[in-house]
Amino acid sequence: MDVLRAVFLLAATLSMGLVAGVFGLYWHAVMPGLAKADDRTFVGAFQALDRGIMNPWFLLTNFVGALAFPLVAGLLLLGQPAFVWVVVAFVLYLVVFVMTIAINVPMNDALKAAGDPNQIDNAAARKAFNEARWVSSNNVRVVLSTVAFGLLAWALVVFGQS
């Protein structure tokens, strides 16, 4: 049973680290870089990035994995010293997951639905996208998922000591 607990706790930690890294990359590089781009480049690049990230590998190992693995790890660690750290990490990422589905994904979808950057008013599409709102929401996702990653890393330490 300890091996199964360790495997799921490690998977939870790795998937959370991966998803925190993705959100962090958007915070540190993607959105600041796109902020300097002209409207057509912004719209086209963001649409391409969003289409690219929507793939089974990202969805399973990062986005959904960071929710599912901590849930299973928490259930397996019920009554164990590491349990509380896993639960708090799960709750933090649940907030991130809901925010993503409620805020960022609809914004991404609306920008994709605006159409081909070669055939639309890119300035209007970019303005309707509301970059500042997307970035603000992503900043919250970065902080919460990074804290969740740290909590899961600490849960590994606690698990290893018990």
Short description:
The chain has seven helices and no strands. It has 162 residues and is mainly α. It has one domain.
Which SSEs are present, and which pair or pack?
Elements (H helix, E strand, L loop, with lengths): L1 H34 L3 H15 L2 H8 L1 H12 L6 H31 L8 H8 L1 H31 L1
Helix pairs in contact: 1-4, 1-7, 2-6, 4-5, 5-6, 5-7
The tally of strands reads 0
Calculate Rg over CA atoms.
18 Å
Low-confidence stretches: none
Q: What portion of residues belong to β-strands?
A: under 5%
Proportion in helices: over 70%
Mean pLDDT across the residues is: 97
Pattern of helices and strands = HHHHHHH
Which structural class best describes the helix and strand composition?
mainly alpha
Distance between the amino and carboxyl termini: 14 Å
SS field, number of helical segments: 7
What is the total domain count? 1
Overall form: elongated
User: What summary fits the major beta sheet?
Assistant: none
Describe the structure.
This protein is mainly alpha-helical and 162 residues long. The protein has one domain (2-161). The chain is 86% helix and 0% strand. Helix 1 (2-35) packs antiparallel against helix 7 (131-161) and helix 2 packs across helix 6 (122-129). The mean pLDDT is 97.
